[in-house]
Write a structure and sequence with these properties.
single chain, alpha/beta, Rossmann fold, 5-stranded parallel β-sheet, 17 helices, 42% helix
Length: 363
C-alpha cells in the first residue's frame, strides 16, 4: 500500500511540475522558510525536477541554526557548572560555540542530558533537588507551547531548581527583515506548515501586502511542496500577492488558539539576535516578568560572555537566501557534519547539512 501511494504521489508531483513548466515565463526566486522543507526538497529531488526559471533559496527556519552564538556560549558556561544538569534536544549537542560544544562539555564530565520533551527536564528536576536543572528552550512557534507548558508545570510543582535558557524566535519578523533588506532576492515565500499549525496565518496578509509578495502555507511531503511552489508561481505570473493555504488538512487561518493563549501567558515579545543574521526587533520571545525566577540568564552569572564566530562561515548569507551552501569555500572540506564551522552544517534541519547529504551538481 505504501509503495502504491508513493507511486501515485510521484505521478502527481510530475503533473504539478509539468503545470509549473507550462505557465512559467520568467525567472523567479522562491524561499522556503523551513529547514525541514529544505531537507524534503533535496531528499526527494524536487529541486532537480523544477524548470530552470525557478530558483529555490533556503530561509532561516532552522531553530538550531539561528540560535545566537552568545546564547550558545551562555549555555556552555552554564552546562560546565558542577551544580547543573543541562538538558537539551540532541541536535544542539554538536552546534559549535566560540570554542567548544555541548558534546565536549559532556565528554569532559559535564552533566548534559538529551531529552525528548521539556517535561522530561521537569521530571529530572523533581528527581534531583540538589541540582539546578536547566532546559535549553530553542525553536520557533512550533516548540514554544511545550516549553511554556513545562514552565507552568514546574511552577505548579513549586520547583526552585528548574529554569529555562530561552532562545525562541518567530517567523513573521524574520520574513519582514529579509524582504526589507536592500540586497533581498526573495519574490515569494513557502510558509512553514508546522509553525502555521500553531499560529495560523493571520499574521501574514499585512506582510504580503506591504512587500507585494505571495505567501503560500505549505506542508512537507514532495506533493505538498510541489503544490505550494505551483500556487506561488501562479501568483507571481499573475502579479498578485495574497496569502494562500496549501496545507488545509493541518492548518487553519486562526491556528491553535489554546496554544497561543499559553504562549501569551508565559512569553512576551523581545528583540532577538539571530546567528549569522543579526538582531531583529521583536522577533523572539522572552519570559514574562512574573516568570523571571525561571530565567536561567538571571539565575546564573553569564552576562559577561564574549563570542567569536568563525570568519570562514557564510551561514548568515545562506539563511537570508543570498548564497547557497555550496558557494561556501569551506563547504565539505573544512566544514563537515563531523567538524562543523557553523550550525547549518550540523543541524538536522540545516541547509548545509541537506546539501552535504543530498546535493547533486546541477547540469
Amino acid at each position: 500500500m505504501e509503495y502504491a501511494q508513493a507511486f501515485r504521489d510521484g505521478e502527481l508531483v510530475q503533473r504539478v511540475v509539468g503545470e509549473i513548466r507550462r505557465i512559467v515565463t520568467r525567472d523567479w526566486v522562491i524561499m522556503e522558510i523551513c529547514g525541514g522543507q529544505t531537507h524534503a526538497i533535496m531528499h526527494s529531488g524536487l529541486d532537480q525536477l523544477l524548470p530552470p526559471q525557478i530558483e529555490l533559496v533556503h530561509g532561516p527556519g532552522c531553530p538550531v541554526c539561528v540560535t545566537s552564538l552568545e546564547l550558545i556560549d551562555k549555555g556552555l558556561a552554564i552546562a560546565a557548572r558542577p551544580d547543573v544538569i543541562f538538558c537539551s534536544f540532541g541536535d544542539m549537542l554538536r552546534v559549535p560555540g566560540s570554542n567548544q560544544d555541548l558534546f565536549s562539555i559532556k565528554a569532559a564530565g559535564g552533566q548534559v542530558r538529551v531529552v525528548y520533551s521539556p517535561l522530561d527536564a521537569v521530571k529530572i528536576a523533581q528527581q534531583h533537588p540538589d541540582k539546578q536543572v536547566v532546559f535549553f528552550a530553542i525553536g520557533f512557534e512550533t516548540t514554544a507551547p511545550a516549553n511554556a507548558a513545562s514552565l507552568l508545570q514546574a511552577k505548579a510543582l513549586g520547583l526552585k531548581n528548574f529554569s529555562l535558557l530561552v532562545s525562541h524566535v518567530c517567523v513573521p519578523p524574520a520574513m519582514q527583515a529579509i524582504l526589507g533588506a536592500p540586497d533581498n532576492r526573495v519574490q515569494g515565500f513557502l510558509a512553514a506548515g508546522h509553525v502555521c499549525a500553531v499560529m495560523g496565518y493571520w499574521e501574514y496578509p499585512p506582510i504580503a501586502e506591504q512587500y507585494r509578495v505571495p505567501i503560500v502555507v505549505t506542508g512537507f511531503e514532495p506533493l505538498d511542496l510541489a503544490q505550494g511552489i505551483l500556487m506561488t508561481v501562479q501568483q507571481l505570473e499573475a502579479g498578485t500577492h495574497t496569502v494562500e493555504n496549501a496545507y488545509p488538512r493541518i492548518v487553519t487561518k486562526e491556528g491553535n488558539q489554546a496554544a497561543q493563549a499559553i504562549l501569551k501567558r508565559v512569553f512576551r515579545p523581545v528583540d532577538r539576535n539571530w546567528r549569522g543574521v543579526g538582531t531583529i526587533p521583536l522577533s523572539g520571545w522572552g519570559l514574562q516578568p512574573e516568570f523571571a525566577e525561571f530565567d536561567a540568564e538571571n539565575r546564573f552569572d553569564v552576562g559577561h560572555i564574549q563570542t567569536r564566530e568563525s570568519p570562514l562561515c557564510i551561514a548568515g548569507e545562506i539563511l537570508r537566501g543570498l548564497k547557497k551552501p555550496d558557494h561556501c569555500p569551506a563547504f565539505g572540506t573544512l566544514c563537515t557534519p563531523a567538524n562543523p564551522l557553523g550550525a547549518p552544517m550540523v543541524s538536522s534541519e540545516g541547509a548545509c547539512s541537506a546539501y552535504f547529504r543530498y546535493h547533486r551538481p546541477q547540469e
